[in-house]
Amino acid sequence: MADKIDDVIAPDLAVLFCGINPGLMSAATGFHFARPGNRFWPALHRSGFTPRQLLPTEQQELLGFGLGITNVVARATAGAAELRAEEYRAGGVILRAKVAEFRPRWLAVVGIGAYRVAFDAPKAVMGRQADRLGETGLWVLPNPSGLNAHYTVDRLSAAFAELREVAAGDPRGGS
């Protein structure tokens, strides 16, 4: 099993997607959102971010679309419920440093609970956030895990599409 999953990141991305933490399948393969039941890749494609549905093994192709992936917490677990608040807060500090270094136009955290703890924003809701990290706009998307039964692929895709439309029309994260 991999100790950590490498970020898919480059300077000045349109959107840096941020997972909660790697699942065991992702840690075993070294690819983000690798579990077959995870809906990240279908939602990314159906929302219009990619012209076809990529496989986790094709994650480096995201860079060509101005997209990247990182995680709030690097430690792999069977489920996010195994993470402690201190890990989220420490991950938030690391994430802020990545954003300062790479300057994505948007940071999209996929998981409201992770966002609330990592960014000390207990009342945050889904969608565009009022807070920013420098010039980077902040967005919260639903967790695409198959365990998140509240969101179908269609609902996830619609949430992702809203970000895509705003990012295309407001490329620097708004003012």
Automatic annotation (TrEMBL):
Keyword Hydrolase annotated: yes
UniProt KW Transmembrane keyword: no
InterPro entries to which the protein is assigned, alphabetical: MUG/TDG, Uracil-DNA_glycosylase-like, Uracil-DNA_glycosylase-like_sf
Highest taxon, organism lineage: Bacteria
Residue ranges occupied by any Uracil-DNA glycosylase-like domain in the UniProt entry: 6-164
Keyword terms of this UniProt record: DNA damage, DNA repair, Hydrolase
Gene3D superfamilies linked: Uracil-DNA glycosylase-like domain (3.40.470.10)
PANTHER family noted in UniProt: G/T AND G/U MISMATCH-SPECIFIC DNA GLYCOSYLASE, G_T MISMATCH-SPECIFIC THYMINE DNA GLYCOSYLASE
Protein name as catalogued: G/U mismatch-specific DNA glycosylase
Gene, per the UniProt record: mug
